[in-house]
Structures are given as C-alpha cells and as structure tokens.
Specification:
This is Protein ydcF. This protein is α/β, with parallel strands linked by helices. The protein folds into 2 domains: about 100 residues, YdcF fold; about 140 residues, Rossmann fold. The protein contains 9 helices and 7 strands, in the order ααβαβααβαβαβββαα. Strands 3-2-1-4-5 form a 5-stranded parallel sheet, with helices on both faces. α1 packs across α9 and α6 crosses α7.
Amino acid sequence: MSENLTAIADALNVLADYLGPRDVPELTRAALNEPLDAIILFGGSILAGDSVFHEAMAHQAANHYLIAGGRGHTTPTLRAQLSKRGFDFLGDPSEALMHQRYLEYTYVDHIRLLETESTNCGSNVANSLAILQAHDIPVKRLGIIQDATMQRRMAACFHKVAPETQLVNFAAYQVHVQVWNGQLGFTKPIFGMWSMHDYITLLMGELPRLTDDAHGYGPHGQNYIAHVDIPEPVQAAYAFLQAHLDITGRPADPAFKS
C-alpha cells in the first residue's frame, strides 16, 4: 500500500510541476533585468499568492499592479479562508475586492486597479487587458500570478487572447505531496492551502481542460485557450492517477461560462 501511495504522490507531483510553472526564480527587478509593464494577481489563487504579489511590489518588479477576479468556483473557498482570519464581507464581494482588502490590511499595500466582473480564465484575461489599456498601461511584458493548479491554463488563455504579450509565469506557490504516516500530505505548509482532496480534484481537472480535443478548452474543443502540448510523462502520470484514485476532476460550472 505504501508503495502505491508513493507512486500516487510522485504522479501528483508531476502534474503539479507542469501545471504551476515559474519562469524566474523570484519576482524581483534584478531577476527580470527590467520591470514588467504590470503584474496581475488572479483571484482564483489561495492567499499564498497575496504574499508573492506583495513581495513583487516590494521589489519593484513591475510598473503597475492589478488584481483580477469576479466570482467563480474558487470564491467560496477564498471567502471562507478570509473569514477564518477575521475578514468578513457584506453582500457578494468579488475575489479582487477580497484580495485587495487582505493586502491592504496585512501589508498596507494599496492596489487601485481591480477587475471585478470576470467569471472564468477567458474573461479574467480579456477584462484585465481592457483595464490596463484603458489606463494607457502597456501590455508588452506582463507577470501573472495564479493558483499553481491553474497557472498553465491562465497562460494559455493569454496566448489565445493576446499572443503578442510576453508573459512571465509565477505560480502562487510550489509544493509537493509525500507520504506521511500512511497518508498523503504536503511537504511544507502553504498559507491558505486547499485540502488534499480539493487540491487533487483541481489537479485532475486541469489535464482534460488543457487537452486539445473535442472535450478540452483548446482550438479543437471549446476554443477558450491556445493549443497546449502536454508532455508524455504528464499524460502518463494523469492516466496512472485516473486508474488509482477515486477522485475525478472538477467539472465546469455552467454558471461561470462567458
């Protein structure tokens, strides 16, 4: 059993490494050579992304900063995580607003550019670009911070909507899974992290979306994202997990379709 669990952990880590890329070792002006036009924090990220966003601001990694996110499948989890930490909101706040308030209170970071209407990765990208352009902010070089389970798909949305934009990916966190006392556990604590079940569900839901076939989000399917070539080892890891886990990926919610 432990050998099987170890193999499952290894396969999950293959998916995690692929889905959550970081193109630079850190989001600093020194690592980037010159500041980015803007860095966008996407609201689907857990709170670990806020720390990354704050550090990027502190190191002057960009000339402008934007938080993007209306309401979607991650909104209830974000609100619950913030409620645990004493942040309560009236009504139905956007993810962008919740992240903004958290950053303002925790780090005294004042983010004036918010995108609050999007409901999926496609509208995240289109609306974010529209806001930047409305403020005469160039979009030649952008940094994007999204939850590590969804970072690669967000980049594929950008490649579809704005193929001329040079992206710097920086997933909100990097973590592996290992076997602890006969159970799967994370190798280190991540602030605001998903439950293991939710994390696996998110990982397993991404490969079908990225696969460019009739059921995926690529040009041969829904045409929401640019074509993505999924490496064979990643496909093999996904197939192994399908065969050994009683967890299916997150289904698309039609309520958040554009």
